[in-house]
């Protein structure tokens, strides 16, 4: 699933941002529910907790995507690295 998300263009920064937004939404929904609904503080708490539970999931997915990004970087080194290694090898060989 993480590989598929990465292939679709979702990056770790997107998930970290979603986690932070969900924390803000949890507080906002709690405050809005507390001030506008007549159901009382219990329902406001439930709304805040429900949305607040999304944040750890987003952060965990962000970590998994960061690992996928790092893994791919190690597998596919840039052409510049190969050029530098080739140049060093030639200079050490006296070419």
Automatic annotation (TrEMBL):
Region annotated Disordered, chain positions: 74-95
- Keyword Transmembrane listed? The answer is yes
| Keywords carried by this UniProt record | Membrane, Transmembrane, Transmembrane helix
Q: Which domain of life is it from?
A: Bacteria
- TM stretches of this protein: 12-32, 47-65
What name does this protein carry?
Answer: Uncharacterized protein
Q: Which organism is it from?
A: Nonomuraea rubra
């Amino acid at each position: 699933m993480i590989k598929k998300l990465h292939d679709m263009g979702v990056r770790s920064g997107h998930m970290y941002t979603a986690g932070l937004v969900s924390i803000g939404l949890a507080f906002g929904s709690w405050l809005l529910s507390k001030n506008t609904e007549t159901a009382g503080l219990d329902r406001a708490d439930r709304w805040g907790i429900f949305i607040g539970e999304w944040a750890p999931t987003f952060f965990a997915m962000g970590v998994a995507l960061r690992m996928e990004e790092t893994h791919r970087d190690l597998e596919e080194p840039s052409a510049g690295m190969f050029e530098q290694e080739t140049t060093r090898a030639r200079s050490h060989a006296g070419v």
